[in-house]
């Protein structure tokens, strides 16, 4: 692929440009549902790991605990999650995804699926997706950077 003014663009530049465009598209579409990508990520983690601690949730999302608190506060305002305390656990708060949270997660998942189809023109196991996964595996994150940066 050539740029408008010169030689072919490198794979690195193409990947970075695509990443920016995809993130903008996903964020715009999620905004229609009143959430951002960070909210969808938190809902996904809470759905897959009920009872996960705040610190583990932040670690998995690659953000600071304070940033995760802000994300969860917004999800609570939307009625997507509830904080509860279980008997015998002292003051430890547990998070529960509500019906509204499940609805938002599924709406967000549909946005991701539509974006995947726009990128690949196929399903999640097509050749391009496999190539992107392999390329991503060649660039592991440094442990202190986290998954969300």
Automatic annotation (TrEMBL):
Gene3D superfamilies (UniProt xref): Winged helix-like DNA-binding domain superfamily/Winged helix DNA-binding domain (1.10.10.10)
State any GO BP term from the record.
response to stress
User: For the HTH marR-type domain, which residue ranges apply?
Assistant: 11-141
Q: Which InterPro entries does UniProt cross-reference here?
A: HTH_MarR-typ, MarR/SlyA-like, WH-like_DNA-bd_sf, WH_DNA-bd_sf
Entry GO MF terms: DNA-binding transcription factor activity
Q: Which domain of life is it from?
A: Bacteria
Q: What is this protein called?
A: MarR family winged helix-turn-helix transcriptional regulator
Q: Which organism is it from?
A: Umezawaea endophytica
């Amino acid at each position: 692929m050539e740029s408008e003014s010169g030689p072919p663009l490198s794979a690195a530049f193409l990947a970075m440009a695509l990443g920016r465009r995809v993130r903008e598209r996903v964020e715009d579409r999620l905004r229609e549902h009143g959430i951002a990508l960070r909210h969808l990520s938190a809902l996904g983690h809470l759905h897959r790991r009920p009872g996960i601690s705040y610190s583990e949730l932040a670690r998995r999302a690659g953000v600071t605990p304070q940033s995760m608190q802000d994300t969860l506060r917004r999800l609570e305002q939307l009625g997507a999650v509830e904080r509860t305390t279980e008997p015998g656990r002292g003051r430890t708060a547990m998070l529960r995804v509500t019906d509204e949270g499940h609805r938002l997660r599924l709406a967000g998942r549909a946005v991701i699926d539509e974006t995947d189809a726009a990128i690949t023109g196929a399903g999640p196991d097509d050749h391009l997706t496999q190539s992107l996964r392999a390329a991503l595996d060649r660039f592991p994150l440094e442990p202190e950077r986290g998954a969300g940066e």
